[in-house]
Amino acid sequence: MSADGIVRDHYRQFADWLAQQTPDAIERKRMEADLTFRRVGITFAVYGDGAGTERLIPFDLIPRIIPASEWEQMQAGLVQRVSALNMFIDDIYHEQHIIRAGIIPAEQIYRNAQYRPEMQGIKVANDIYAHIAGIDIVRAGAGEFYVLEDNLRVPSGVSYMLEDRKMMMRLYPELFASHKVAPVEHYPDMLLDNLRSVAPMGVLDPTVVVMTPGMYNSAYFEHAFLAQQMGVELVEGKDLYVTNNAVWMRTTHGPKRVDVIYRRLDDDFLDPLAFRADSALGVPGLLSVYRAGHVTLANAIGTGVADDKSIYPYVPDIIRFYLSEEPILNNVPTYQCRKKAELDYTLANLPDLVVKEVHGAGGYGMLVGPASTKEQIDDFRQRLIARPDGYIAQPTLALSNCPTFVESGVAPRHIDLRPFVLSGKTISMVPGGLTRVALREGSLVVNSSQGGGTKDTWVLES
Amino acid sequence: MLSRTADHLFWMARYTERAENTARMLDVNVQTALLPQSEEAARHAWRALLGISELQHGYDQKHDAVTQRDVIEFMVCDPSNPSSIIACLTEARENARAVRGTLTTEVWEVTNQTYLDLRRRLHGGQLHKDPSQFFEWVKYRSHLSRGVTLGTMLRDEAVNFLRLGTFIERADNTARILDVKFHGDDGEARRDFYYWAALLRSVSGFEIYRKVYRDVITPERVAELLMLRADMPRSLLACMEEVVANLREVRNDVSADTERLAGKLHAELQFARIEDILEAGLHDTLTEFLRRIYELGNGVSRDFLVPLAA
């Protein structure tokens, strides 16, 4: 819906259909969806809620609809952005042209907690680092897309994108007959193809595995889902070991060599010999095999250096530097509090700004100025003054809304979109992504850990 | 297949089968307890059940006296008893969850749904009002789990390990169900008839017995049916045929001894005569069988499930 309450063209057909549905019928469908999600076990574990506690992510029955023209623009912007980010990571771990050109100060790299000196000078297959990226995008006006965050480490949510679609097709097959919704179901196929394309040199028929921290991880459902959909093994660290400069998995028929690991755990936990010694989740010696080029990790170690909020403000310049192109997707204007003038501006305008921790994630540790009390704002002021380089600030955008079922009926709620961009020999993606919706009125926070929900995302074919 | 995956599959099937067999065993006792009998005899029957399940000690630590209600409570709902139905079905589901990507969606959903429904069923005292109905439900869910496994899964190693788990567990349980009687006393003939009839029903063998023997029920024939008939689905011989066949499918470089163990056990049953077994002593024969099944389970673990190091 547009700001003045008029139904946008591409929603019109859906709105007509919705107007004919009785509240009862909708409620029945909603219950059916809940039951199905519960039976299928599409749940996520909640940290600090006791091991094994599983919750459903609220699923909204109204799809988010994107016209083909908007998607094409977004897609072009995503290809551009992810290419540049991959070139940036490669450069950072090799020649560092961008630092020498004076575009990014060296300390922004070296002081970045996600920078991995172990990666310096390492050759990775096809020079690809962020094989799977989940870029969070909001729309603030016609054709105006803003990137909120580049998730280049282990972005989650693609399984919800696929399950939400499956659910909508099951509940409302008639809608798919009347709308030309671009399919997304081939994502696992594309992912497998992509992972195989980045196997170590000389490996013609690579063995791909998905690596999970285990079934108590919040995204375990997704890890198991992707392994199953791709038909590859889902491994834990203890299933793998390193010998003779190669990675092997323990099978009922003895050791089997592993070539590509789609790992869903953070750098810190990958190899207790190289990173956190207290972690039992990883594989001792993995880094040495990786450095020798005998196994591919997707995503590469050290990709976090490029998706940190402290690097985010530089992404438009990164695009200009490597591609000599103007960015297609906007950055949200960002004030870097480590700079004196920008800190002063931030402190003076706190009630209007969103302040985020540089290394924060999951919607924790942030201040949403317009929605905060004076006490909360004062508290953040103290934190900013004490440690300015730990924060950035952004204006609150006039985010687009999407009609959403809430207690009182259908009402507008803020949404964002996370398309999943695959980088291998080429860059590819399925049309759509995970739409997250802030279920609380006025809230801008869509993270599932903060009570956000999801919607099916329809890219209409023209 | 990953050793860990095989391990989860093997135990998922074992726990599902164990829950089913616990339900069957409890049902025999519930049925026979309906007959007129002394309090002492009834207590004895429940005590025999605990003994054969090796749960006497665990039970005594929680309960002062042996009553039907407490034994059922302990064997169905007590999460601290690792063989209780609730513990088994929870474990089956946890193992399934760990390898849900290896299972078909249908197999996973049946296992998950069983787990979700179990809690609802145990809530509200229905169990003690009509225990047989609850046991029926457990058996039904186990049938469903096996059926959906065979009906939807690729016949590959995953199925072999599921089947190995099912039949090793079932062989163990059938031997125990048969042996319960010999933990008990030798009661009067009339009660014996009802006992053996209930036992046959508990292994879905009553109609089969009539079809096979066309004669009155005798303990000897019940023993023969449950031990030596290859066409009786829950007999020891039928279980061993499945174990041998599935082991052959997954054999690896180190599994020869385990195959030999299974093959010998199978051959002995195949060529055994019930008269000889009874003469040697049924209880001793079953005890020896249980020991060897235990050894076989360990062999499978050692050869396939515990990771083969480099």
TrEMBL record, chain A:
<feature type="domain" description="Circularly permuted ATP-grasp type 2">
    <location>
        <begin position="63"/>
        <end position="438"/>
    </location>
</feature>
<dbReference type="Pfam" id="PF14403">
    <property type="entry name" value="CP_ATPgrasp_2"/>
</dbReference>
<dbReference type="InterPro" id="IPR025841">
    <property type="entry name" value="CP_ATPgrasp_2"/>
</dbReference>
<dbReference type="InterPro" id="IPR051680">
    <property type="entry name" value="ATP-dep_Glu-Cys_Ligase-2"/>
</dbReference>
<protein>
    <submittedName>
        <fullName>Circularly permuted type 2 ATP-grasp protein</fullName>
    </submittedName>
</protein>
<dbReference type="InterPro" id="IPR016450">
    <property type="entry name" value="UCP005522"/>
</dbReference>
From TrEMBL, chain B:
<protein>
    <submittedName>
        <fullName>Alpha-E domain-containing protein</fullName>
    </submittedName>
</protein>
<dbReference type="InterPro" id="IPR007296">
    <property type="entry name" value="DUF403"/>
</dbReference>
<feature type="domain" description="DUF403">
    <location>
        <begin position="1"/>
        <end position="305"/>
    </location>
</feature>
<dbReference type="InterPro" id="IPR051680">
    <property type="entry name" value="ATP-dep_Glu-Cys_Ligase-2"/>
</dbReference>
<dbReference type="Pfam" id="PF04168">
    <property type="entry name" value="Alpha-E"/>
</dbReference>
